[in-house]
Amino acid sequence: MKRLILGSLILMGGMGLAGCSGDDDDGPDNTGGVGNAAGAGNAGGVVSTGGRTGGTGNQAGAATGGATTGGVLPGGAGGLAGGAPPETGGSPQAGQGGVATTGGTPPVVGGQGGEAPLAGAGGAAPVAGTGPQGGEAPLAGAGGAEGGAAPVAGAGGEGGTVVVPAELGEECSETIPCAGLLTCDEDTDLCVIVPAGVGEACDEQVECESESLTCFEGICIHHGALSFSVTWTDSEADLDIEVITPEGNTISVSDPEADGGIFDVDDCGYDSKHGTYECTDPGGTHVESVFFENPTAGDYSVKVVNYNSESTEAVEYQITIAVAGVPESPIVGSLADGATSTPEGFEYVVAGG
Q1: pLDDT band for position 353 (50/70/90)?
Q2: Interval 308-340: pLDDT, tens
Q3: Neighbours of 36 (CB within 10 A)
Q4: Beta strand pairing status for 315-323 and 331-335?
Q5: Which class would CATH give 213-348?
Q6: CA dihedral defined by 192, 198, 199, 205, rounded to 10 degrees?
Q7: Of 8, 60, 102, 154, which is most buried, counting CB atoms within 10 Å of its CB?
Q8: Smallest Cα–Cα separation from 21: which of 55, 70, 71?
Q9: Residues forming a β-bridge with 324
């Protein structure tokens, strides 16, 4: 009878140890061992086979690393559900199914060198326990992190391809414009310099087409022996310059010539039919001017009219008077919509007269 009991104890102890092994999930009699088969879900995870002296069967259930499903940590070993682990050499107590508990606590400290469990598909990574000695940080499972790796920015992004304007001598087309004020030659499809005419935009690269013109505030104007100009920056304002000659005649956009003077440039003209402003350079400085090739000596006066503007505030302007292309001190002011400035006088003296 003693031999029979001893043999049964040995047999049950051996079956308990089989439940502790991560290599054998099929212990039919040890229910706790079946529960610990969750350790097989741990990719590369090694369950503890020596966590308890004497090879206690259900202690393997406490080993780190059950397979996580949807971010749920594996339940403890069957031994946890079945009560306290047996003492050394005792027969294993049957666990209650060894079923993973939903939302369970982190795995109980157990195995030596056990690897941390992988995060389940779609689930959050398990909470790192202090149990496995030398255990690695949890690895994100397939689909575990919703954010995933940061997407690589595609060429051009949502804004599409960035077009870089062609420089002087480079190829141009309808889709590749020339940089700055360069012109795309229709015959060669190359960017070339075309000198600017009166009232056209100019810069350091694109000069005015004749010596009688000067690039003034980015616009080609006639400088003459005497010139009067007004400049402003508001692209929704049409300012007009008016010059009164020593003879008392007025030169303006509506009366472009008098006493040798010529109305030269009309910028940002207001189109009342469409309610728009025709500016040479909408984002730049706007210019209107009157010049004299052979001015008579005497007293001139100049004034500015705010013919039309969209702003509720006064539009700032600057008047420049130049003799032989050399500007005098500028005159600054501001005008509300429809207002006219006070005339500014200037005496022109003929050289040697």
Answers
A1: low
A2: 998 889 999 999 999 998 999 999 999 999 999
A3: 33
A4: antiparallel
A5: mainly beta
A6: 30
A7: 60
A8: 55
A9: none
